[in-house]
């Protein structure tokens, strides 16, 4: 039987990585937000390897976990700029 595809279900390693990144982002954001408020700026999180957002088994991927956390926290929600990344043509269609 062939191994499951990467985005079919989250591996234990992916779960650990997602939790570490989620906690790190929250702590980083709490440090950065006061400066963003002073300058009337927003903060952003960009994951260049985000995948589809959810695994086929329904588990949330790292960026979705961070977004869900940001929505719950007023400071994060108000200073969050999730946006979309637009790739320069020089990267080619494989990055879009």
Search tags:
3 helices, 96 residues, mainly alpha, disordered C terminus, 46% helix
Structure description:
- The chain is mainly α.
- The protein is elongated.
- Helix 1 packs across helix 2.
- The chain starts with 11 loop residues before the first helix and ends in a 17-residue tail after the last helix.
- It is built from 3 helices and no strands.
Uncertain spans:
90-96
Number of strands: 0
Helix content: 40-55%
- Along the chain, the helix and strand elements come as HHH
Measured distance between first and last alpha carbons? 32 Å
Give the biggest beta sheet. Answer: none
Given the C-alpha coordinates, what overall shape results?
elongated
Radius of gyration: 16 Å
What is the average per-residue confidence, as pLDDT, rounded to a whole number?
Answer: 78
What is the count of DSSP helices, taking H or I runs of 4+ residues? 3
Overview in brief:
With 96 residues, the chain is an all-alpha fold. The chain has helices at 12-38, 62-72, 74-79.
Write the layout of secondary structure elements.
Layout: H1 12-38, H2 62-72, H3 74-79
